[in-house]
């Protein structure tokens, strides 16, 4: 039996600007189940990143409810590794910030780093790693506090196409292996199809869920999904829905 880990119910959010109020979301309703990978796409400027901030509790809705039963890890568009800290010390940073810098959690973070190919680079600095390796380090840093839900804010957008494909595969495998729940915001339709169990299509601002699709790739990883005949059909459908 699945367990709902995140629920948005009729969420309204308003930005207050010098020119007045701007309604970013209105009647936004959806849920995420434990262990699920959900991708959200929508027109530019519709408030996708606002949605992640609402999920994490960084901002509060003007109306409606955002309910969660887990802790969050936030992965940004760029790796944001501190250049003066080694990879090991970058990975430990969330533990220091949250005052959870315990031997058990440090051991957990180092085990993750070694398990996913960073063991030989822990004493290296970010400038000594490729873009793909830095983004992998950023994901391990996000996982260091053992969060229940990963919020992914276009985490591959700063990478070139080939690196993006490889890192996308890495992130998918790590999230699945660690049995994490993930909510991904992306502008890239192909990325959403290759990673997600479900894709939510947002309307133009004020954002609401206009369409919802369960994908049927039977556990295939991102690269294998791209090779199937169904991939292009999903792309065409989502492209049309984004441009209605």
Question: What is the structure about, briefly put?
Answer:
This protein is an alpha/beta fold. It contains 8 helices and 9 strands.
How many DSSP H or I helices? 8
> Can you identify the CATH superfamily?
P-loop containing nucleotide triphosphate hydrolases
Q: Please count the beta strands (DSSP E, at least 2 residues each).
A: 9
- Binned, the helix content reads 25-40%
Largest sheet, order of strands side by side?
Answer: 5-6-7-3-8-9
CATH topology: Rossmann fold
Alpha-beta classification: alpha/beta
- Tell me the strand percentage band: 25-35%
The backbone outline, from C-alpha atoms, is globular
Mean pLDDT: 91
Distance between the termini: 36 Å
CATH class: Alpha Beta
Write down the Rg: 18 Å
Identify the CATH architecture.
3-Layer(aba) Sandwich
List segments where confidence is low: pLDDT < 50 over at least 5 consecutive residues: none
The domain count comes to 1
Largest sheet: 6 strands, mixed
């Amino acid at each position: 039996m699945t367990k709902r880990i995140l629920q948005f119910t009729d969420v309204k959010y308003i930005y207050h600007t010098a020119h007045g109020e701007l309604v970013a979301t209105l009647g936004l309703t959806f849920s995420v189940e434990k262990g699920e990978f959900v991708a959200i796409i929508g027109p530019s400027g519709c408030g996708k990143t606002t949605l992640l901030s609402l999920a994490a509790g960084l901002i509060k809705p003007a109306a409606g409810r955002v309910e969660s039963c887990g802790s969050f890890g936030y992965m940004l568009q760029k790796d944001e590794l501190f250049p003066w800290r080694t990879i090991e010390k970058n990975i430990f940073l969330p533990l220091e910030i949250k005052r959870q810098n315990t031997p058990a959690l440090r051991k957990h973070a180092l085990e993750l780093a070694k398990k996913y190919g960073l063991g030989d680079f822990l004493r290296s600095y970010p400038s000594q790693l490729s873009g793909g390796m830095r983004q992998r380090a950023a994901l391990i840093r996000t996982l260091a506090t053992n969060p229940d839900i990963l919020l992914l804010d276009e985490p591959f957008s700063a990478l070139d196409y080939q690196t993006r494909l490889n890192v996308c595969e890495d992130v998918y495998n790590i999230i699945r292996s660690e049995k994490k729940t993930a909510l991904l915001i992306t502008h890239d339709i192909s990325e959403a199809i290759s990673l997600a169990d479900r894709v939510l299509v947002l309307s133009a601002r004020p954002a609401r869920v206009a369409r919802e699709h369960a994908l049927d790739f039977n556990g295939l990883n991102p690269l294998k999904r791209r090779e199937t005949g169904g991939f292009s059909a999903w792309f065409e459908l989502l492209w049309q829905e984004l441009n209605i």
